[in-house]
Amino acid sequence: MNSQPPAPPPHPAEPVRRTGGRSARVCAAVHRAVTELIAENGAEQVTIPAVAARAGVNPTSVYRRWGDLNGLLADVASTRLAPDDPPPDTGTLRTDLLQWAERTRAAVTTPEARALLRHSIGQLTTCPGTTPRMAAREQQLATILTRAEDRGEPTPTLTQAVDHLMAPLYFRVILNLGPVDPADTRRLVDDLLHHHTGRCPT
Asked: How far apart, in Å, are the Cα atoms of 119 and each of 54, 71, 79, 123?
């Protein structure tokens, strides 16, 4: 009687890739250390050894993951400055723009956000192009305007919204032209709508 050849051993299971874990904890600690140091001393005074010491990690781990200080700051800026919520959808253009402008104002006027934003703008001299966080804010504006147009509301163009709402918010923060408060965002929204749609503030 012929015996059957032994069955091949089963293939080892593919290793399970874990999300989070130590790598995520290290990343969170380093990001937190960067934002704390920037808030205390400004981006110009941040060094990788100082970040590593604050985060409780070895400097070589930081270099291995982010390459250099500019790479680290760019990663932190992308995380801290990019919007993490969908654009407002309240049913009216003015309320959507008011909520968007207030969220943007609150996000970019913290000490660490201001420092990260200024550093990012400084990097454009060597790496020209729109920063991802600004592009994300602009995309949110485009979504708000498209929804309003679909509802039949008088709507400014995206260029007008960027020039007369988004740009002034960032400009005041980057150049440190004094505090930006909710009254400023309301004025910018109402000026945009009044001059480019003919709508009066309500």
From this structure: 20, 12, 14, 6
- Structural contact between residues 170 and 117, judged by C-beta atoms closer than 8 angstroms: yes
pTM equals 0.72
- 63, 112, 98: which is closest to 169 by C-alpha? 98
Could you report the per-residue pLDDT of 73-127, keeping only the tens digit for each? 888 888 887 788 899 999 999 999 999 999 999 988 888 888 888 777 766 655 5
Nearest to 137 by CA among 156, 172, 115, 165: 165
Cα-based distances in Å from 131 to 9, 59, 101: 52, 27, 18
First to last CA, the chain: 95
Q: Greatest CA span in the chain, whole angstroms?
A: 96
Residue ranges for the chain with pLDDT beneath 50: 1-3, 7-19
Region label for 174, one of left (φ > 0), alpha (ψ between -120 and 50) or beta (otherwise): alpha
**Two structure tokens written together for 5:** 């050849």
Instruction: Give the span between the Cα atoms of 77 and 70, in whole angstroms.
Output: 10
